[in-house]
Amino acid sequence: xxxxxxxxKELLKLLxxxxxxxxxxxxDESFPKPVSLLKSDFAGKSTTRWKSExxxxxxxxxxxxxxxxxxxxxxxxxxKEREKALDEWRAKGFAVDAGYEKxxxx
Length: 106
Known about the structure:
- The protein has about 110 residues and is mainly α.
- Helices cover about 55% and strands about 10% of the residues.
- The protein folds into two domains: about 1-70; about 70-105, no CATH class.
- It is built from five helices and three strands, in the order E-H-H-E-E-H-H-H.
- The two termini are about 35 Å apart.
């Protein structure tokens, strides 16, 4: 992972969120804190950036939490569990037509 500082517009694009949503996230303790840089070249104005490694670590933590919450970390595992459930239904005598299901899932 490349270590660099991200501008706000990069962060918004990466997370696919709006500015108001970013401001709400910034109130959350788990969201990466921005770094304030003083720009002496711009009459003392400061600019805000986020460390890319902190942002990606936060995203990874969200993904890990989601995996734990759903119990399904990959599509392959989901498909395997689905097939197991269908087999159990078949064993109980229910008519399960997987072909019909695949045609009408779209």
